Amino acid sequence: MSQQLLSRFFSKKETNVKNEAVAEDACQSTPTSKLSTFAFTGTSRANDNSNPKSRKRPASIEPTPNKPKKAKGLTDFEQQVLDLKVNHLDKLLFIQSGYRYKIFGSDAVTASRILNIKLVNGKISFDFKNPSKDDHLYSTFAYASIPIERLLVHVRRLIVKGYKVGVVDQVETKAIRDNSKSKGKVFDRHLSNVYSAGTFINDEDLEKNVNGKSILFLNESSDDTLSVVSINVYITEIAYDQFKDDFTRINLESRLHHLEPIEIIAVGDISSKTERCIKNFLTNVREII
């Protein structure tokens, strides 16, 4: 694959981002239709004759997190939960609190139903402008919880159902906090892992030498040229190809059956012909983003 192709395939896609309120139906952890990509933009050292201490670090490839205004009546921890969820609407979030992982709001309702764990009633919607039917009866979020040691067991069950799971770990302990200057604030928590059908590695499969399934990245040009990159995290195998296809998408179909991806990520817009081909392959695909 040429350098020109790689540049075009992974170049930044222009998107229009609007600061809108979080809709309730967006909190149901359904995959989005596009994948936003970000180009690495740094300062060239060859053209930088300034003092090394004054050089700026390259811009982050991660988008700037949204920080909604603090909602009335929320504790610091609940506000932290809301901030995390607003920035990860496409995932079910497991948030560490002490020796347990907790799931909140609409995520808790979904997890409780699939995992058959107890749901503590509370607010369901993360969008206070569009609350759920009974949200006015409660002052805190609904939640469910699991022991830390059972995390991967439950994550696997959710992935089988087609969900993407984000794990938020508590990066501070009480001992560290007692010796810090910010004793009154909530513990720091950050998203540490994201599990999906194509990235969850099962230890049992590794012991049985199972090859596992791959993630397929797909990009389509206006002249019916398709570029695909397949990544298998089980055996660290990468395959890529670029080809022209006709209206039946027979070439794409043959590659899908050969690679057997369990997760497909469309980079940019795809045509109705390509979308139809992927939908026909959905029996072997867990998720389309």
TrEMBL record:
Molecular function GO labels: ATP binding; ATP-dependent DNA damage sensor activity; mismatched DNA binding
Signal peptide annotation: none
GO CC annotations on file: nucleus
Stored Pfam families: MutS_I (PF01624)
Keyword DNA repair in annotation: yes
Region spans: Disordered: 38-73
Keywords: DNA damage, DNA repair
Composition skew (Polar residues), residue ranges: 38-52
Domain DNA mismatch repair protein MutS-like N-terminal intervals: 76-204
DNA damage is among the record's keywords: yes
Biological process annotations from GO: mismatch repair; mitotic recombination
Name of the protein described by the UniProt record: DNA mismatch repair protein msh3
Organism: Pichia kudriavzevii
